[in-house]
Amino acid sequence: MTDTARIAINGAGGRMGRRIVALAHADPALAVTAAIDAEASGLVGQDAGELAGIGTIDVAVSASLPENVDLVVDFSTPEGLVAIAEVCRERGIGLVAATTGLEPPQQAVIDAVAEVAPLIVAPNMSLAVNLTMKLAADAARALKSAPEGVDVEIVERHHRFKQDSPSGTALKFGELIAAELQQTRHVHGRQGRVGERPQDEIGYHALRTGDNVGEHTIVFGMIGETIDLTVRGQTRDSYAYGAIAAAKFLTGKDPGSYTMNDVLGL
Q1: pLDDT value, residue 100
Q2: Looking at residues 29-58, what average pLDDT do you find?
Q3: What is the mean pLDDT of residues 56-62?
């Protein structure tokens, strides 16, 4: 790789893709050399900088990955991520994958990139969210000893346009907590006469309102006391900055699977 990492943004025409183009272009450690979006988007051929609101950067949106790329940052769709991951694996190009809602066969295609190139897969690129995930796992580990047990509920709130529910971030919180507390049941909302709450379940509750960029509250409920861990995003730039931090972290790394904890030094 060169001293300045040459990055491509997959999903460059989307809301997140446009912000990453703008913020990465302003970062001296990165050079935006490619912007990719689906042919059906109608954006192919347009200047990525113009779409991002920063003026011309002489990088036209294309439907395929050009050669002048060291690393790909993906904020697209499951199908778009799978397609770019296959190219990354063929060419040994590093990948930061932030798309959620993957089915197991799709996830396997993404994971295979780590065999030949550095890879980060994260359901949420926010540095604050990833730090809160670490805190939630630590809290769950510590609360194993609660005499009356601990009830875990996860409440997430996103904008009305979000396609998947619960969010990939909420599911990741649940996965980390379940690994510590051994919950085996994951319940998505409740309705009717469901009976007394068992302690081997995690409850998920998804709110979709307005233009909320994302917030998650993890509730640890015990007899006589409660712990709430809440993380809120005010703007989508938090996700873009996290993705940029991940891209800079992967620059020059050996092939393998890395995490946002590695980026944060946790």
Answers
A1: 81
A2: 96
A3: 97
The 10s digit of each residue's pLDDT in 103-123 is 999 999 999 999 999 999 998
154 strand-pairing partners: 204, 218
Contacts of 224 (CB under 8 A, 6+ apart): none
Q: What is the pLDDT of residue 119?
A: 98
Could you give phi then psi for residue 241, rounded to 5 degrees?
-65, -35
Catalytic residue (choose from 134, 159, 162, 253): 162
Q: HEC string of 89-127?
A: HHHCCEEEECCCCCCHHHHHHHHHHHHCCEEEECCCCCH
- Give the Cα separation of 264 and 32 in Å (integer): 23
134 catalytic, yes or no?
no
Looking at residue 1, its pLDDT comes to: 44
Q: Tell me if residue 158 is catalytic.
A: yes
Catalytic site residue from 158, 172, 205, 216: 158
